Amino acid sequence: MENSNNNDHNHYSNLDNDPKAPLLPLQEPIQTSENSYNSNIKIIFTVKNLLILLGPLLCMIVCLCVQFEGPKTSRDMLAVLVWIFSWWLTEAIPMPITSMAPLFLFPIFGIASADDVAKTYMNDVVALVLGSFILALAVEHYDIHKRLALNITLMFCGDPLNPPLLLLGICGTTAFVSMWMHNTAAAVIMMPVATGILHRFPASSGRSDPVSNFSKAVVLGVVYSAGIGGMSTLTGTGVNLILVGMWKSYFPDAEQIGFATWSFFGVPLALSIFIAMWGILCLFYCTKASGSALSEYLDKTLLKRELEALGPMCFAEKMVLSVFSVLIALWMTRSLTDDIPGWGDLFQGRVGDGTVSVMMATLLFIIPSKKGKGEKLMDWSKCKKLPWNIVLLLGAGFAIADGVRRSGLAQILSSYLDFLENIPYLAVAPAVCLISGFITEFTSNNATTTLVVPLLIQVAETMHMHPLILMIPGAIGAQFAFLLPTSTPSNIVGFSTGRIDIKDMIKVGIPLKIIGIGAMTILMPTLGALVFQTNGPIPSLGILDSSIHSRA
To answer: Which residues form a coiled coil (predicted)?
Structure first.
């Protein structure tokens, strides 16, 4: 080491003595050649860079080639939509960054002012998501989800082992967790719990043995249960929040959809689809006869040992559960019925579900954890995992919906769905659900909802039909992303385990999608009419929408 240092010292000493020596060491001259030119071309013209250019190129083509009879902003909005959706589909730009594109594209194209666009990124619905995510991080930090999963698994394990019953316990736990947090977060939290059970099994020697089939059933069950459970509540998925946000935006004078109202419809719908999913998985992958092959690797003793390792519930865990329970109670009772007003009436309708969500999340930063001096249940360092990508995507959904409405594009595109007017009344819900369910396989469910729901509002107005008769099937259909791994982040979580392939997803996803559409067909004109009062007076669009109609 000393010799090398001496050599370096002598080298620089010689340079100092040479008056012609440069002040800074020079690199070897770069030789220009055809190879270096080709390498530069390859660096510039990559597939990623070409996909980046695809967005503005498609936007320019739309601006030059498409002409609508309506206002110019409708064509510009279509061009912006093509740009944004091309980046979303190809992921040429990270999705969170693409989600911020309306902030500069809308003002440039004259669709909306910078202030108006920015306001759509933060509203009561987004506040609801932020508060829910902070609570979900607290649940994850204190391993409450693992304790819940192990207890329910022990309850359903059976003695001797009953694989269909165990599968029901794992899927039921995932669906329950997904009711109170985003379905992607639920899948991310529950997948390690599920695979932890599967790791007790030996490596599969064949693709059709009981161990391999049960592993497929568990992974598919967690993935689909996260999505199905999310349908039942407003907080379970961004799609429901987008739907409620659009309903509030388009029909500000109508009765708003609260947490309890949606749950009265969403829980029965989700429960019927969940039972069908469990039956399909048992039929294809998880028979009761496979219990003898699995029992030697999984028994109650191992599960009890893992539960005991977590120890008794500490004060912090009990307080997080208490805060979560109070939040759920406040959500459910904010708005009850016309005859029995909820606690929200005390504030003359000024508070929303987001108000409660943020308030209860704030308590986590106030209540002590009793684990250290001055330590609270949560601190900001624990919130670094907040999924801002989902928050930005949700904001982009509201921005696009507002832009489609402001520009008049919704009315123009809805004219291409005129064929729905000739469909029998009872066939409207399945037709809309089928269209939305097809689109969602190729783009995110949030993006599908953002695109389809504003069009359905215009179609409903043309058909003189209550808007929710079309809006709810359109939003629910967007959540039937059961076929492809890329359809939703929850599917990616399961596919990344390596225990399932596309063939398995299609095998289970097709009958599950058909059953989901069937359940929607039955429940929307029956239970939906009762919960959402779709047989009552048809609400009128807001002032902004009326001005669009007169301008177009």
So the answer is: none
